[in-house]
Write a structure and sequence with these properties.
Length: 84
């Protein structure tokens, strides 16, 4: 009887852990859209999580690019590598 109860407990814990990990994946993918940052082109210290206007100069805030978007693609060939 104790072995059966122990077996059910282990299965329950494993299933709970799997379901918990699955739900974290779903919220993480939805989290990417919520991390957009908007900043003023003239005043980079002005930062907002939604579009609007700069309180200093009234210019429209622009979406700041992610570091991943700014990084050049290492697989692409440039003119300097093609000359070699």
């Amino acid at each position: 009887m104790k072995k059966l109860l122990l077996s059910f407990s282990v299965v329950f814990i494993v299933l709970t852990a799997l379901v918990s990990c699955e739900s974290k994946k779903e919220t993480h993918s939805g989290h990417a859209a919520a991390t957009d940052i908007y900043t003023c082109p003239m005043h980079p210290e002005v930062v907002s999580d939604k579009p609007g206007s700069c309180p200093k100069c009234k210019m429209d805030l622009v979406k700041k690019k992610n570091e991943m978007e700014e990084m050049p693609d290492s697989t692409s060939t440039t003119d300097s590598t093609m000359k070699m």
